[in-house]
UniProtKB/TrEMBL annotation:
Keywords: Carbohydrate metabolism, Cytoplasm, Glycosyltransferase, Transferase. This is 4-alpha-glucanotransferase. Its main location: cytoplasm. The lineage of its organism: Bacteria, Pseudomonadati, Bacteroidota, Bacteroidia, Bacteroidales. It comes from the Bacteria. It comes from Alloprevotella tannerae ATCC 51259. Its EC number is 2.4.1.25.
Amino acid sequence: MTMSKLRFQIEYHTKWGECLQVELQTSNGERGHIALTTKDGLQWCGDFIPAPNTTFIRYVYCVYAGGKIIRKELRTPRLLQFHTEDRTKKSADTACVNLQRDILLSDCWTDESIAAVYNSKAFRQCIYREPAIIESDHNSTSPYKLRLEALPAPEGFRWGVLGSSGTLGQWRTDQTRIFRRVASYTWEVDLDKTDLDGKTAYKIVLVNENNTSQIHWEKGEDRYIPNTQGVDIATIVWVNASAPRFDLPRWRGAGIVLPVFSLRSRTSFGVGDFGDLRKLIDWAHLCGLKAVQILPINDTTRTGTWADSYPYNAISVFALHPIYMDLNEWGDLPLFQKYREQGEELNALPQLDYERTYALKTTFLHELFALKGKEICTSEAYSDFVRKNRSWLDPYVSFCHKRDKYGTADFRMWPQVKAATEIEYDYYTFVQFLLFRQLSAVHKYATEKGILLKGDIPIGVSRDSATAWHAPHLFHFEGSAGAPPDAFAVDGQNWGFPTYNWDAMAQDNYAWWRERLKYMGQFFDAYRIDHVLGFFRIWEIPVSQTYGTLGYFRPALPLSMAEIAAYGFNLPVCQYVSPRITELDMAELRKMVRWEELSSFVDKAGGYYVLKSQVTTQKEVLKLELPEVLKKILLDIIADVLFIEDPEKKGFYHPRIAAQKTRAFAQLPTDQQQAFNRLHDDFFYNRHNHFWAEKAAKKLAVVTQYDENETMLPCAEDLGMVPAGVKEVLNDLHILSLEIESMPKTFGQQFADLKCNPYCSVATIATHDMPPFRLWWQQDAERRQDYWTKILKREGKAPESADYETCEAVVRNFLAAPSMLCLIAFQDFLGMSNLRNPIPEAEQINDPANSHHYWRYRMHLNIEELVLASDFNEKLRALIKCAGR
């Protein structure tokens, strides 16, 4: 196939010694610069012939002088796509291109373009979704087009153009030419060849759809169509106008956050499922919401017990959890009626009974496979699914087979066995195919409703998972991921996941991450990057310990002995890497536990007590059958250190996080306490900032751009101990931040100022790891009063319980924030209505301080009731509309 010749043309005033170039990248991976030439120092031109199989090019203009680029357009690259033979696939941003004809691209230099966030799937395929049929003018035969790159006009308006030529209406408002939409953000009108003489002036206008003579003119001087009359008559000419000059409000949307397992409808089988998610989308659409965010939905099946309820402990980053299968799809089968009564019984429970519900669903699915497996597994759609996903299906299916056969997900315990039999292979693949089909249909339905689905990418995977078994080189198994201590978990958090071997992942340009996101992108328009700080550095806890306080950052720059001494800490470091108990401390401990119990675990050494070798790690202590008080004492003693030696770099040390709360610190002389504080604070808040930012930028730049054409909207969960470089990296990569009023990011603030939220952010009242607003309100009397006085501007004593009006005021404040997305938990929306749960404690999803928490929260009313709650729905819709969302 002969490709078009592209001619780039741009007007640009250069200085002596400067020239213009086009910097481009093609779909084939070709990158380069096309030198442009000029005859008059103003009009620059240059040609490029793409390779025959090229499907798109991206390009920007730059100024070249002195052997280097001295200036480049400050915009996202323009995108030009070529039609493939499959004309059913609509281009993301192009009009029809006749590949047998040359194309002249008449551009103007611009440092502004459509913001990168709007190029995500969330906007292109959902919020600003193209109509089913692209607008076209079938009577148009003109090869000359004026093209506009812009977001869709505000509701009730259309983009138009008026100009000095007859083609453009001769400035008469009743002759306005309306742009037709030819792609996501591309609009065009036909021109006549006489318009290309360099003298035709024009302006972009907004036209009222109901009264086309009523228009709004863009700001600034008239524009002029460049002179292109010297071009061959057979050439297509695209005059690409710069962005319209209007001050228009930016899109802001509201949404709901609710785990799928928490959904409840009249047809649920004891747990929320993908059918319930469709019903939630209906309700969201009814109320004017534009987003639905859920928690992770990957398969977590290791034991079949409630321990698998933890949604962030996946055995596969691809496979979906069977518990979310909507069994109502087979409602016409006798099989469905067989289990319906049991499903209704489980659905009537106030909380999720994970074990019984999981058993019911898997039993049903095994019987469904026996009944329908052959029919479904011989379908073309099934074969296509297997062919496209074999890279992860094979290890996942084999893992599931061996897990079931040997009764454990700990693959280190398995003998070498043959691969799964064909029927078992087909069963597991059969289930994944059905889940894929159901969730894909829900996503399509949400898109048609203009509601974006936001998923959740967990930062870790289970150490007993198909992923860890199949690709162990991608992980460090000697440590567990977690988090430093905070207000919600004073001992820190230990999630149990192996940490990532980023060096190994970089070898294939993070292919594991890119494939993971590409698969997820089939179901979601946006995604939450769980613990994005893990891309900068992860908190790693040795597998021999359990407290998060005994962790350290990976990667890190541990301190040498000389560096420690330079801070003024001149005591022997080796004495503070293991706990030492003074006589005074021992006297205090004897008040809590009998000496006979404690003495069997300590030895006297040089004026101190030290732990015996069998209890020097917390995992060793937990193996023993001990009274809880004694066990807690031993665990706390083990954590009572000031330094942790780096596991890979001997003789180098990490200060123990929050060591100021230890007995060891309290016993230091004042000058040594001050020295330790200096090295501790510098280590955690200054030393690594540039180092971590540089590491994260490299990873995230590749991971978030996992697809060359279109990606989901990335949204960071950037809470906790946030390094100084995080904000800049997220901004540079167009990743939305997370803004929570009660967790300000400015040091010294008690509550964040919502009015100062950046546009590229997600505002939320609380996450699933925090108590919902009403529970927080009754748990923290001091902060409650401060919030009442300082934020809500109320007088007197704050009520002990948050009433409807208080909850509504909070929701209203969050909706008014400038954040692009305001995503509020279902519990916090319902707080402003008598529909809310009378027991606030029942609404908490997770307790992060409890590593063995049972994730079982379910909404206390069903979605059908919610749909019929017209007073509440109208109130919510009005609040959203009033906030401009």
